Amino acid sequence: MKKLISLLFIIILLACSTESDDRNICWPQEECNVQFWIDNNVSPGVFQDTNGYWHIEHQGFNYFTIKGELSEAPLTEVNGVPIVETIFDSDYWIWIDGITFTVPLYSVLGYFTGGGYNNPIPIGNTTYTIEDMAQNHPPLNIVGYQINPNQCLDCPYSETLIGTRSKYTYTPQQQIFFDNEMIGDTAKILIEARFGEISPEIIQKEFNIIFN
Q1: 12-21, 50-59, 188-197: least confident range
Q2: Is 139 within 8 Å of 146 (Cβ atoms)?
């Protein structure tokens, strides 16, 4: 009788385990979802044109704000804390004396077609690499991080140093640098939401920006 009870207990346990493995990480929702928007309290009059570009007018202070809302993911939570992460990145950099430049942005972890950071970037009549720039004055990405002279861009962990991150919250937000010298320029903001740490569910969103 005891063996029969033990066998039934194991079957029930396995059934429950199988059911849990089949569930989406954002269960009971069918799938994880994210929403991001430009805060019109900070940037009144912001709008998206027919080509998909967001027009943001400079309001006299040097930033605009992107806010987000992520699906709740109960299966990731530890002691009520969600193991979620939102990463912000852009293709727009600011260097010495307001010199700005953009580089192709293919993912939140990689800028260049070759997957490295040594493709040359022309500034006027001079050509630099991003490492050359860091030796003179660390270039600032408008989402709020810099490439510094001691940063290892080829190390396995280098991807964790790229972008700015908002962790453990379903309502991330990020202030993006925007001063009046950027008026007339364009930028691409890439946002990546990650649900869980091991084999995370990943959702990417883009904002194409025109600074007015």
Answers
A1: 12-21
A2: yes
Using CB atoms within 10 Å of the CB of residue 131, give its burial: 0 to 12 exposed, 13 to 18 middle, 19+ buried.
middle
Q: Which domain holds residue 47?
A: 31-211
The residues near 175 (Cβ < 8 Å, ≥ 6 apart) are: 63, 64, 65, 144
Helix/strand/coil (H/E/C) assignment for every residue in 182-199: HCCCEEEEEEEEEECCCC
The CATH number covering residue 176 comes to: 2.60.40
User: Of the candidates 79, 109, 80, 86, which has an alpha carbon nearest to the alpha carbon of residue 32?
Assistant: 86
CA angle 172–210–153, rounded 5-degree value: 60
Q: Kindly report whether the global pTM for this prediction surpasses the value 0.90.
A: no
How far is residue 133's CA from residue 142's CA, in Å, rounded to a whole number? 16
What is the distance between the alpha carbons of residues 89 and 145, in angstroms, rounded to a whole number? 9
> Is residue 11 domain-resident?
no
Number of domains in the chain: 1
Residues 157 and 56: beta-carbon distance below 8 Å: no
